[in-house]
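Reading a protein record of the kind used here takes only a little practice. Each token is a code from a learned vocabulary of local backbone shapes. With that in mind, consider the following protein and its fold in token form:
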Amino acid sequence: MMIITLISPRRGMGQTVTSINLSALISSITGNKTLLIDMNDKNGDISAYLSDSSITKGIDDFVNMYITGVLTKDKLKMCVKKVTSNLDIMASNTCYNIDEMLISSLIDNYSLCYPNIIIDLNLSDNSLEEKLKERSDVIIAVLNQTKTAVLSMAENIQMYVPFMDKLLVVINRTLPGCYARKTSYSISCIKKDIESLGFGKHIYELEYNFNLFNECNRNHTLNFIMEGLEKQYLYVRQLKAIASGINNISRLDNFKIQKERHIFFPGKLIHGLVSKR
């Protein structure tokens, strides 16, 4: 079982979209069931990016069944929403507060059903977030190609240092082509700054892609990944490199990248959620 947690030094870095795209890709290239958990209780944007209708199944459902003593293995599926044949999502909590005991129970229960669990997490200095990072096999820090993002990372460096051995940094929305040559803060500059913080071992890039931008605004983010897999977008190739990096850090036998299979996209285009439970 693999647990991957995504964090960002500040809001607006593209962490949630990266979480969705990485989950979709991993569920495809491994052929394994994958659960994406929205632990971003301040924003909870995962459902918005995947559908123009609200997603009601999530952490609150799990907590309610847990505290009332009616939770069983058969009822676990009642707390998640099926997005594709291999990808389910769990919406963020809005009613209940979550403590370490509850999150441990949630991870323990769902790890029996999903070989891959990906968590979109708020970065904050509290025991719950620390518990999740401790349980994670790989932690991915997502930041934009900006000096401000690196400075925010430096200001909160104590949140990253304990997990340096399993930390992977993604520079998101890198500027393409002619724009890259015009910026005063180049990829080489930001990589040098990240390396100066001690996090230079695993650095990856994700380009800014206008097609992805458009699909996000239509609430159809998964359409981009499906098309990108078929047309071999640079963004998708970069995402595959991140998946390989995760594999190298974790060294877990159950996270083996298989020959790519498009089994999780049943339709030509995905408009909102593919199917309902």
Summary: The two ends are 24 Å apart (CA to CA). The beta strands are 2-7, 34-39, 81-82, 87-90, 116-121, 138-144, 167-174, 203-207. Residues 234-250 form the longest helix (17 residues).
